[in-house]
Amino acid sequence: MSHLPRARPAAALLALPLLLTACSTAGGEPAADAGPPKAGGTLRMGISSAPDCIDPQQTATNASINVSRQLADSLTDQDPKTGDIRPWLAEKWESNADSTAFTFHLRSAATFSDGSPVDAAAVKTSFDGLKALGTKAPLGYGYLAAYRGTTVVDPRTARIEFAAPSAQFLQASSTVSLAVLAPAAFRKTPEQRCQGDGLIASGPFVFESLKQNQEIVLAKRKSYAWGSSLFKHQGEAYLDKIDYKIVPEPGVRTGSLASGQLDAVTDVQPVDEPQFAGNGFSENIRTNPGVVFNLHANTTRGVLTDEKVRKAVLKGVDRAEVVNTVLTPNYKPATSILGSATPLVSDLSAQLAYDPEGAAALLDGDGWVAAADGIRTKNGQRLSAAVVFSPVFNQNRSVLELVQQQLRKIGFDLKIEQHTTAETTQIQLAGNYDFLWYNVTRADPDILRGQFSTKSGNRSKLAPGNPLDAALDAQSSTVDTAKRKPAADEAQKLIIEHAYAIPVFELTQVVALSSKAHAVDFEASSRLQLFDAWLS
User: Fold this and answer.
1) Quick one: CA dihedral 16, 19, 25, 31, positive or negative?
2) How far apart, in whole angstroms, are the C-alpha atoms of residue 471 and residue 490?
């Protein structure tokens, strides 16, 4: 998801000489010599932007989620390796045949930080309160679009019902966006909770303080004893505190880590990765699940109304060159519209192979003829389209400029239009674009429904009742993987077959660690999970 605009006050937060070539002097001994985990200490974590809100139910940016995930527990958790849904606050669960009702059986003894129990009544209050937030809960609002209500079956059993099939809800129940908050939290306004006031949850850390555009401090929750079944240990977290330092400039972040002023930093840029591979440092790397970075076509605009043109663009992008030239081996060329870490992803790498000759043949057969400048024309129309993007990922412009060069080789003129995140959102809502450049993170194939369904985002501007709609609806109708996968496969195939979107590369999270920091890990959505983190 998008990062916030960078805050100027943070630029001077860690104003120090950048020791970009002196990693070995600050790194200490390799992590392998650190021994068993130890309790205590404050993890100083440099993050790239100021969280807009730390209420789990209202977060939307990576920076926000990386903080709020440590504060709140969810009904379930998701295995990052397999995609399986595992117990957390709920010991077990069932769904009905059409995935319109989910019954959760809660574990005993879990409490919120105000001492109140995590019971079925609290689950009902939390989900009803989240639904009432509407668009203030940008992620949860979509997950609960068809939410009908929660029934308290008994103190430890809650049944959550939907007005339409919602197989995606089971995975959504593992996300921080649907984390369970205490009833007392809803006595505060959404704005107060965003700033940590009244943010009462059951997580392994509690909110301590916030200095706007500078830092957020979390403290360990004493007597925490109901961690996810995926956590590496049970009981309290190892760390006493987490001190998130907001440092927008990549060079300042990496320099602060190199000099020992920080223990870990997020959003390491490709150019900075090599300095933290060894020399007493380490990197934790995870590919984002969900929709990969792509050129999403508006099929009602200009030359993109022609499917042969869109297919030629699909063939004209050299994804391997993008990764090898602009990014690093930690990034992957797209092999589907979904990232390789997404459950039920299809391998469509053959359909996404670089084929400039095939692209040229398609355009030749479609009547597009090269002009003097190399760009093709047809009946006086130039083979050109614009891509709208915002620079939320530092390499976005460099990637698009390389794609622009690649497409010129087949006679296609890609124009690049940079806008702020807010401007891009307005352009998207108005439909005033040829291509949109974006990615969306979620560890479930239903993320496609939000972008492509005519009943939802419909960024391709397709007509209702098309085959893609049917496939997207089918994959949302059951939690049975054996039944769901064929529909998810069909949806991915149709998107590529008709070139509704041009996948390019998978976003990767790279966190750099000093020799003191260990087990700074990711959950299934590639957001930080710091319960098992510790310092030597």
Assistant:
1) positive
2) 6
Instruction: Measure the CA–CA gap between 392 and 246, rounded to whole angstroms.
Output: 16
CATH of 8-70+203-287+509-535 given 3.40.50.920, 3.40.640.10, 3.20.20.150, 3.40.190.10: 3.40.190.10
Q: Which two tokens stand for residue 429?
A: 């809502």
Total-model pTM: 0.90
> Would strands 42-47 and 264-265 be described as parallel, antiparallel, or unpaired?
parallel
Q: Please, which pLDDT band fits residue 394 given cuts at 50, 70 and 90?
A: confident
Write down the pLDDT at residue 11: 33
Instruction: For residue 246, give the amino acid letter.
Output: I
Q: Percent helix, strand, coil in the chain (nearest 5)?
A: 30, 25, 45
Q: What burial class does residue 135 get, using C-beta atoms within 10 Å of its C-beta: 0-12 exposed, 13-18 middle, 19+ buried?
A: exposed
pLDDT at 10 over 60: no
- Give helix 307-316 / helix 356-365 axis angle, nearest 10°: 160
Local structure of 518: helix, strand or coil: strand
Q: Taking each helix axis as running N to C, give the angle between helix 481-497 and helix 467-475, from 0 to 180 degrees, rounded to the nearest 10.
A: 150
* Domain 291-506, classified CATH 3.20.20.70, yes or no: no
Q: Please, what is the Cα angle at 296 between 80 and 472, to 5 degrees?
A: 60
What is the Cα–Cα distance from 184 to 192, expressed in whole angstroms? 13
End-to-end CA distance of the chain: 32
d(CA 222, CA 39): 13
Which CATH superfamily groups domain 76-183? Dipeptide-binding Protein; Domain 1 (3.90.76.10)
Q: How many CB atoms lie within 10 A of CB 9?
A: 13
The domain spans of the chain are 8-70+203-287+509-535, 76-183, 291-506
pLDDT single digits (tens) 218-269: 999 999 999 999 999 999 999 999 999 999 999 999 999 999 999 999 999 9
